[in-house]
Amino acid sequence: MTDDVSDGGTDSWISGGAAALAMYAPEVLTSYGLLVSVRPSGVHDEMLESPDVAAFAEQFAAGAIEEPVRDRFTATTGDHAAAVVDMVWIADVAPRIRGALDALFGPSDEWPGRRRYPVADTQVAITGFTESVAQLDRLDPALSDAGQAALALADAMNRTPTAIPGSTVEAVHEQLTPAQAVRVVLETASGSSDRIATALR
């Protein structure tokens, strides 16, 4: 599968993560750039970097938020709680995408989103991103070897997002095309958006 000419051939695996995203999912690259460039109006770094928000973000990434941690988070963020949850999700998802794509395609010279600007509703950027990912063709799970490689990649993104195992990268290179690998990374990352709605419950 790696040598599929229409998918860029073997050289496609050494283009860099950001370049791979631009090549195989340009619409998602645009929405990703917006996603990592926004911040909620009225929310300052002091709040986003507070210990209570940091503790909440750590448990959010792990998938289970303890009630005392949630209570301190809501007390600290007040009326901005939902917007800060959006920022916690973005701060969790963006490194997973960068880490996985750079592991698969090589380091990127630069990723978009170096300066954040205030917006009234961060959900607009999140929805735009998840909808752009939903427009991609999905990998057929019936493809056994390819499906196993995709599942291993998704699992690694969830368990060790900044250190995708070399064996997983090798399996992806052998069983998936570069375009399929990009789709798996994006689907895995965007699939966690349902956690936003339940984070404060």
List the helices and strands and how they pair.
Elements (H helix, E strand, L loop, with lengths): L16 H8 L1 H10 L2 E3 L4 H4 L2 H12 L4 H11 L3 H25 L11 E3 L3 H12 L9 H16 L6 H10 L2 H13 L3 H5 L3
Helix pairs in contact: 1-2, 1-6, 1-10, 2-7, 4-5, 4-6, 6-10, 7-10, 8-9, 8-10
Structure description:
The termini are far apart. This protein has one domain. Strands 1-2 form a two-stranded parallel ribbon. The radius of gyration is 17 Å and the shape is globular. Helix 1 (17-24) crosses helix 6 and helix 7 (123-134) runs antiparallel to helix 10. It has 201 residues and is mainly α. It is built from eleven helices and two strands, in the order H-H-E-H-H-H-H-E-H-H-H-H-H.
Characteristics:
single chain; 201 residues; mainly alpha; 11 helices; 63% helix
